[in-house]
Amino acid sequence: MFTPFRKIRQQLISDNKMTKYLRYAIGEIILVVIGILIALQINNWNEAKNQNKVLNDLLQSIANGVQSDLRELDLLSAARANIVIKVDSIYNKHVFTGMTEINIEEASYVNFAFTNILNTIHLNTNLSAFESLKNSTYSGKIQGTDLALLLGTYYASADKIRDTED
Predict the structure, then answer these.
(1) What is the pLDDT of residues 28-43, one digit of tens each?
(2) What pLDDT, in 10s, does the model give residues 89-98?
(3) Neighbour tally for 158: CB within 10 Å
(4) Contacts of 164 (CB under 8 A, 6+ apart)
(5) N or C: which end of the chain has fewer CB within 10 A?
């Protein structure tokens, strides 16, 4: 205790003023309780701030994943369009000119195009951040919001596209 409070307490006890001493003691207890409540409130505020930061980081990771998925979709679409254009031009050249033979370069490209279509050109969505959010305690904070609905719809659509391509 502080020296002034100690002196006040000792003086009240020595003067046999028990009711004043009890009031003083109760006042001191109330001050301690108020201090503890303030400390708890500050701790709760700090914890909520840290949780919001972690949630915002997870949501930013999801946003970055969706942006990379969109870039990959653009590249995938352009690659498939180029393959279609090239294969159509080879087909049309042979159909309209009556050519029955295909040269090595064209055959190689057609083979390459169909190999890519059947094997390697697939949409690979970035699910890591979304899975982290689903498995964390923070998923409850966005549950029932438009964001949760949009994310669920987006990743369900991505799963359907992936299944269709497989």
Answers:
(1) 899 999 999 999 999 9
(2) 777 766 666 6
(3) 19
(4) none
(5) C
